[in-house]
Amino acid sequence: MSKDILAEFLAHSMELESEARERYLELAQAMRAHNNVEVAEFFGRMAEESRLHLSEVEEIARAYKLPELKPWEFVWPEEEPPETTSYEAVHYRMNLQEAMLLALDNERAAEKFYAAYAESSVCAETKRFAAQFAAEEASHGAQLVAKLGALSQRGAVHHREEDDAPHMPE
């Protein structure tokens, strides 16, 4: 019974990190296409962080038979996994500070998800891993807060202002 609980938790964790990585890669590619290089590079680094965490979860999961969950069988607090940036929250001309704030929201959502799992699980191993993952997400969030502080020292550039006047038909 407790192995099943842990296996389901690990399946959720793998999906969470996989979806986060995929979304960050998509966003990096989109930002590159719009010549928003600084934000593209940041999203690329976030994709790499997700890949590293996914590798960690995969290593743990090798010892268990994970359930093959269908997309609708995953239980998330929202429609998508907690660490997945909403497409609606992104703008092709967003600045680095805005991108970092989105990533910080993602880290905090993932931390909250893992902490809730640690709090509610009846399985001691699941509690331990969930608490460990929550602490890792909290650490990532703290790193982003520190980087945001350093970024605010240099000042944020607002990319959303359009360079050209709108073209109106006569």
Automatic annotation (TrEMBL):
Signal peptide: none annotated. It holds the Pfam family Rubrerythrin. Gene3D superfamilies: 1.20.1260.10. CDD domains: Ferritin_like_AB. GO terms for molecular function: metal ion binding; oxidoreductase activity. SUPFAM superfamilies: Ferritin-like. It comes from the Bacteria. It comes from Halioglobus maricola. This is Rubrerythrin. InterPro entries: Ferritin-like, Ferritin-like_SF, Rr_diiron-bd_dom. Residues 8-144 form the Rubrerythrin diiron-binding domain.
